[in-house]
Design goal:
Length: 258
Amino acid sequence: MTTTRQPALPAYDHRPGAGPTLVFLHYWGGSARTWDPVVERLDGRDVLTLDFRGWSRSRGLPGPYSLRRLADDTRAVIADAGVTDHVLVGHSMGGKVAQLVAAARPAGLRGIVLVGSGPARPAAEITPAYQEALSHAYDSDEDAAGARDTVLTATELPEPVRSRIVADSRAGADGARAEWPLHGIAEDITRHTRMIGVPALVVAGENDRVEPVAVLRDHLVPYLADAEFLVIPRTGHLIPLEAPAELAEAITAFAPVG
């Protein structure tokens, strides 16, 4: 595994292996290591994970932290890593970023996996009052732990993982923590999502309270030209941490080696 951080690029990790490369994009409050339990189950695969601008090892990079800036960063990281044959795997906010990247139809993109993704068309529940409340979800360790236990997860997780969720959510720059709830979550990107020209796999958590099954079915799948829809039983929103084996299996079936 090689770790790279250049002044203008987010930090990323690239593990060489069999392709196509799986490019993992994390959720609001997550980091590259959110994907560790999934990546560990993808032995031998070429894998790239990154810390979005303003988060974790990339916290010091300046804004703006908009979805389009994160999409531009993703394309730059893919190019910097020399990846030419790839599948995007985006979780929550990372799924919305992945949609914007895929909409540009980059050369070498084979498919897109959207895991508990921010939908193309925001749900009716995304009101200004909801956004304002969400923007304070990570204000303190106690707030972050409360969000983890009452909103983000639906299963019991080991204590080291529980602690990591809080640490990662608190490791965002102020501007990055505010951008998604106050702006990105409410952005309608249906025009872009309709432009995606590769197969898609939409993965939902049965008990996801952030992006429920019905929201993904009604506000995301209809805007994808070629989409499969998979519901993972019992899991909440943090599917990469709650059901990593099932998610790794689904990704492998959708994007096999070769």
